[in-house]
Amino acid sequence: FHAQCSQHPQSPRMELCHVPAGREKGWYLALMAPNVKGPNYAWLDPSRLYLHPQGFQDCVADLLQPFQGDAIDTVAGIDAMGFILGAAAAATLRKGFLAIRKAGHLCVQTVAQPYSDYSGREKVMEVRTDAISPGLRVLLVDQWVETGGTMRAAIELVERLGGVVAAPLCVPKGVAAICIENSEGGKWIQERYKCSHCVPPRLQPRFDQHQ
Fold first, then answer.
1. Which of 9, 103, 155, 193 could serve as a FRET partner for 111 with CA atoms 20 to 30 Å apart?
2. What totals of helices (H) and strands (E) does the chain contain, helices first?
3. What positions does the domain Phosphoribosyltransferase occupy (predicted)?
4. What share of the chain is helix, strand, coil (3-state, %, to 5)?
5. How far is it, in rounded angstroms, from Cα 211 to Cα 159?
6. How far apart are CA 86 and CA 141, in angstroms?
7. What is the pTM of this model?
8. Do strands 175-176 and 138-141 pair parallel, antiparallel, or not at all (unpaired)?
9. Bridge partners (DSSP) listed for residue 140
10. Could you tell me if 185 and 145 are in contact, meaning their C-beta atoms sit under 8 angstroms apart?
């Protein structure tokens, strides 16, 4: 991934040209940049993956593959990095997109849900009350599920308004993220909802240990 593009041999920019011949699921994970700023930041930066055209397309395709044939009415992305994958998934599915926001950004009537994020900080999430009608089938998308607190808050908001993240008869509808870690919260979500992520099983322990 680090060879320079032939068109710009002297350019110091990141490699955005190379695509491996065999594109197994998760090949694009190597495009993510490691943390160089210390413990106050996430351990990986997926935004480098989004800059790679084929990597981004394959990531979205892999996230949506388990939901092929499922009845999904809308895609909801979680503030803020979940907006990127969520909007891309909505466009691919030709569905509408709902932004689930951090508190204080929406100028319309909202319902709120407190939560603790991956760093342990207490926050509040909001969604507009007119966006989710009873029975609306929602695919929830975020960039990463670490402790699960943020995703659980989004699930709570959708279900409080009558939306469906898990359909009747225990046929789940959906949660998607690049990685769902095997934390207590991550396991809680995976036990109750149909989940999709991009990390191959052989790499999952390394992601869980932030290695």
1. 193
2. 6, 13
3. 69-162
4. 30, 25, 45
5. 35
6. 5
7. 0.90
8. parallel
9. 76, 175
10. yes
Each residue's pLDDT tens digit in the chain (211 positions)? 343 333 443 434 666 678 988 899 999 999 999 999 998 899 999 999 999 999 999 999 999 999 999 999 999 999 999 999 999 999 999 999 999 999 999 999 999 999 999 888 999 999 999 999 999 999 999 999 999 999 999 999 999 999 998 554 444 469 999 999 999 999 999 999 999 999 999 999 999 999 9
Domains of the chain, start order: 28-208 (3.40.50.2020)
How, if at all, do strands 179-180 and 144-145 pair? Answer: parallel
Rounded CA-CA distance 46/169 in Å is 35
Amino acid identity of 205? Answer: P
CA dist., res. 155 & res. 167, Å (int): 13
In degrees, rounded to 5, the angle at the alpha carbon of residue 55 between the alpha carbons of residues 191 and 78 is 45
* Dist CA 118 CA 42 (whole Å): 9
Helix (H, G, I), strand (E, B) or coil at 33: strand
Residue type for 17, please?
Answer: C
Q: Which two tokens stand for residue 165?
A: 């993240």
74: phi then psi, degrees, rounded to nearest 5:
-155, 160
